[in-house]
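Section 3.1: Structural characterization of target chains.
Under the original work plan, the team committed to producing a structural model for every single-chain target entering the pipeline before any wet-lab resources were allocated. The record below documents one such target. The sequence was received from the expression subgroup and is listed exactly as submitted; it comprises 175 residues.
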Amino acid sequence: MSPLHKPDAVDAIRQQWAQERPDLDTFQMGLLGRMGRCAALIHKHLNEVFAHHGLSSWEFDVLATLRRSGAPYCLAPTALFSSLMLSSGTMTRQLQLLAERGLVERIPNPDDARSLLVRLTPGGFALIDQAVVAHVTNMAAILAPLDTHTAEALDTGLRTLLAALDMTHEPSVHE
């Protein structure tokens, strides 16, 4: 058996349940358990690369969102916090910290004198351009154990699951 296919901690948990409750089908427990363990380990690997660039994951996400928005690399805070699924209060504090580091700046909104926009500074632009290259390389290394067919099948399965989960969390007309 190859090292990538040897029994793991999730198998041990399922085996314990099989002994204690042989009536339970624990396949789903194993699948979701592995997904959770993978997510935790993936976040660890991603955070190591972000830290190497002096960023936390939320800082990377904010800077990357501004960078991928295209020139002039500027968004309203509401667009930022909705794309990052953060509360406005959390986003305000985070933007303040990024501004203090000189990575973003708040500028007047030409369409609404009561609000400000958030724009990448040249330093923020340079940092995110370096960090995103390392991030993409890191993601490729994380997924390197999967052959193309396996990676595509995993992507298809996760896409299907995500769509189903998203549908169950859409607000109803009564909310």
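The first helix runs from residue 9 to 20.
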